[in-house]
Amino acid sequence: MSASPSSLPIQSGISLRQCNTFGIDASARAYLRVDGPDVLQQLRQLRQDARLMAMPRLVLGGGSNILLTGDVDGLVLHMANRGIDVVGEDDQATYVRAAAGESWDGFVQETLRRGLGGLENLSLIPGSVGASPIQNIGAYGIEVKDTFHSLTAFDLLTGDLLVLDKPACGFGYRDSVFKHALRDRAVIVDVTFALPKRWQANTRYADVAQELASRGIDAPAPRDIADAVIGIRTRKLPDPAKIGNAGSFFKNPVVPAERRNALLESHPALVSHVQPDGSYKLAAGWLIDQCGWKGKTLGAAGVYEKQALVLVNRGGATGKDIADLAAAIQRDVMVKFGVMLEPEPVFV
């Protein structure tokens, strides 16, 4: 361990294998565990350490939406702050704030234990609370933006703490301002959610409705929906603790209605869902499956047997192995359907 002039515990040559759910064995040139914004403030004040200040920075949470394609030649800021608190309420909602370093699923389950609904459809998604707005994570008819209230972020450029509301975050499909204007600048410190007091069950997805029906539940509570989602995800998706993966690897492509209708003529079984603007979201997993990739392996990387949308580390895969597999899948889908799949994870 090497100490900075302010005694920040910055380490060098640290393996990041346990910091990414793919289990890629890459290392960081420099590594700092961040327990709160005070650590970030101290880091910014290290102007006398020119070498450190010149390093590129990578913010890591749970490492569930990242593909390390090699060693990180820079400073890794690993968010590890903790805390979950009810910070207010009104007639419409209860406001719950969680630190960026909290486990996302741990946070969801804690809100349910406190009798608060609204996040149950997002159960068992790996990763951290701080990463959830960056990706605007979503599943089974819900996205983070639906219950998002605000967040606090540390501005590495100015040293200020920023408070951003929903419009300021620029949420889109698996997208936000943190992938654009605030990328490499803002570090999310905590996130506040507005959990509705007039809760309504969201069972629009057939899988959820069928799972509830199989359990004999026709008037589900939030806990019932969470249990149903956990049951579905457990059967369909691999546990990152056992098989390295980052969940869904590709976004579901959105195409104009004309393009979807043309594809439907040549592929009558095409799985698609109409969007509010009249475009259609295509099921990326179905497209990949039709190209024969489900269960296939390329080197030490493979496609999960139960879900073609999930790429896995069969053991000892490098980031390049995963990236090469992803590129091969993209090529085949483009040739067969004329659609380019876009990865969800960030390549580093």
From TrEMBL:
<dbReference type="GO" id="GO:0051301">
    <property type="term" value="P:cell division"/>
</dbReference>
<protein>
    <recommendedName>
        <fullName>UDP-N-acetylenolpyruvoylglucosamine reductase</fullName>
        <ecNumber>1.3.1.98</ecNumber>
    </recommendedName>
</protein>
<dbReference type="Pfam" id="PF02873">
    <property type="entry name" value="MurB_C"/>
</dbReference>
<keyword id="KW-0274">FAD</keyword>
<dbReference type="GO" id="GO:0071949">
    <property type="term" value="F:FAD binding"/>
</dbReference>
<dbReference type="InterPro" id="IPR016169">
    <property type="entry name" value="FAD-bd_PCMH_sub2"/>
</dbReference>
<comment type="pathway">
    <text>Cell wall biogenesis; peptidoglycan biosynthesis.</text>
</comment>
<feature type="domain" description="FAD-binding PCMH-type">
    <location>
        <begin position="24"/>
        <end position="198"/>
    </location>
</feature>
<dbReference type="GO" id="GO:0071555">
    <property type="term" value="P:cell wall organization"/>
</dbReference>
<dbReference type="InterPro" id="IPR036318">
    <property type="entry name" value="FAD-bd_PCMH-like_sf"/>
</dbReference>
<keyword id="KW-0133">Cell shape</keyword>
<keyword id="KW-0521">NADP</keyword>
<keyword id="KW-0961">Cell wall biogenesis/degradation</keyword>
<keyword id="KW-0963">Cytoplasm</keyword>
<dbReference type="Pfam" id="PF01565">
    <property type="entry name" value="FAD_binding_4"/>
</dbReference>
<dbReference type="InterPro" id="IPR036635">
    <property type="entry name" value="MurB_C_sf"/>
</dbReference>
<keyword id="KW-0560">Oxidoreductase</keyword>
<keyword id="KW-0132">Cell division</keyword>
<comment type="function">
    <text>Cell wall formation.</text>
</comment>
<dbReference type="GO" id="GO:0009252">
    <property type="term" value="P:peptidoglycan biosynthetic process"/>
</dbReference>
<dbReference type="GO" id="GO:0008360">
    <property type="term" value="P:regulation of cell shape"/>
</dbReference>
<dbReference type="InterPro" id="IPR016166">
    <property type="entry name" value="FAD-bd_PCMH"/>
</dbReference>
<feature type="active site" description="Proton donor">
    <location>
        <position position="248"/>
    </location>
</feature>
<dbReference type="InterPro" id="IPR006094">
    <property type="entry name" value="Oxid_FAD_bind_N"/>
</dbReference>
<dbReference type="InterPro" id="IPR011601">
    <property type="entry name" value="MurB_C"/>
</dbReference>
<dbReference type="InterPro" id="IPR003170">
    <property type="entry name" value="MurB"/>
</dbReference>
<feature type="active site">
    <location>
        <position position="344"/>
    </location>
</feature>
<dbReference type="InterPro" id="IPR016167">
    <property type="entry name" value="FAD-bd_PCMH_sub1"/>
</dbReference>
<keyword id="KW-0131">Cell cycle</keyword>
<keyword id="KW-0285">Flavoprotein</keyword>
<dbReference type="GO" id="GO:0005829">
    <property type="term" value="C:cytosol"/>
</dbReference>
<feature type="active site">
    <location>
        <position position="174"/>
    </location>
</feature>
<keyword id="KW-0573">Peptidoglycan synthesis</keyword>
<dbReference type="GO" id="GO:0008762">
    <property type="term" value="F:UDP-N-acetylmuramate dehydrogenase activity"/>
</dbReference>
<comment type="similarity">
    <text>Belongs to the MurB family.</text>
</comment>
